[in-house]
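Handoff note, outgoing to incoming analyst
You'll be picking up this chain. Sequence as last confirmed:
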Amino acid sequence: MIRDQGIQPPCLLALNYAMLDDRNEPPSSHEILDIGIWDRQENELAWKAVLGDRVGAPDLSPYCAPGRATDLHGLPPAFIAVGQLDVFRDENIDFARRRVAAGVPVDLHVYGTAYHSFDLMAPGTRLAREFTETWHAFLRRELHR
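Most recent structure output, in case you need it:
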């Protein structure tokens, strides 16, 4: 919306296991079920809390669900990170792919064996430390540009 209104955009986006698309259609949204963390059921509940009866509406604005955006040109660079076992895996990968196709810089990281919020639930693990180091390196690089 900021881009479309001609307002100064943020210098970067950090999208860590981001909830982007209300339609809940990609394979990962059907694979991640009943695991005790954010899964398909929690995702559906969250979208209903945000959008009410507009969830899945064909004319829903991408301002409400950024995964629906068709024009990604002119967006700021982004860091996108998601776990392989995260309900958001496929929509995050797709969002990154479409940013690349639009010529928008993106650092995409998919962490094998990681689930939603793995870095918060198990911060002392090697994988969580590697994620945090990678994320912070991106922030330092982009903020000093």
